[in-house]
Write a structure and sequence with these properties.
Blueprint: H1 25-34, H2 36-39, E1 43-47, H3 53-60, E2 65-70, H4 73-85, E3 92-96, H5 99-104, E4 111-116, H6 124-134, E5 138-146, E6 156-159, E7 164-170
Parallel strand pairs: 1-2, 1-4, 2-3, 4-5
Antiparallel strand pairs: 5-7, 6-7
Length: 177
């Protein structure tokens, strides 16, 4: 597992282990390419962060800061190791919390971009999306999920080989950069 683009392109990342499904490099690379115009100087939230690959990829490509939310022990170890190895401590914060109460406490517009990549089939994804529809805590919410997992709301959907889909929701006041 490695960073795909930006200033840290090619740098290796520590994986949390075989029980965790990281976002593939191909999916992560394309996902961040889709957000290219929105990344520069953005405040990013990485929910269900795992190794931190999505948030670190965003930092590599110009995001100003990333908040990582993760509560799994193995994932936290790899996340902290990856943040340290890339020298990203000053531009990131790690929250050892469950993602649902975390997003439920956020005000509208707390972040520019939020990523959510919970375990496939998890109802937590629906709860994050429902909360975003109620309180848009980020201008853009990007979620990775199984293709057959249907999410409500107007969004752009991108299918990848296998069972992966990335869905991007945008708030009506999304700035264009």
């Amino acid at each position: 597992m490695r960073i795909v683009g930006g200033v840290w392109a090619g740098r290796d990342l520590v994986s949390p282990g075989p029980r965790i499904r990281p976002t593939s490099e191909a999916v992560r690379g394309r996902w961040l390419d889709l957000l290219e115009g929105d990344l520069e100087g953005s405040r990013v939230l990485d929910l269900f962060a795992g190794s931190g690959a999505l948030g670190l990829e965003a930092l590599s490509r110009g995001a100003a800061s990333v908040d990582f939310v993760e509560n799994g022990t193995a994932s936290l170890h790899s996340l902290k190791a990856n943040v340290a190895a890339l020298g990203a401590r000053k531009r990131s914060r790690v929250f050892k919390r469950d993602a649902i109460p975390f997003v439920e406490a956020l005000p509208p517009g707390a972040y520019d971009i939020a990523f959510a990549d919970p375990p496939y089939g998890s109802k937590k994804l629906d709860r994050v999306v429902d909360r975003w529809h109620l309180v848009p805590f980020a201008r853009i919410l990007g979620v990775e999920h199984q293709r057959e997992h249907r999410l409500e709301g107007k969004a752009k959907r991108y299918d990848f080989p296998g069972e992966t889909r990335v869905t991007l929701f945008s708030s009506p006041d999304r700035r264009t950069r």
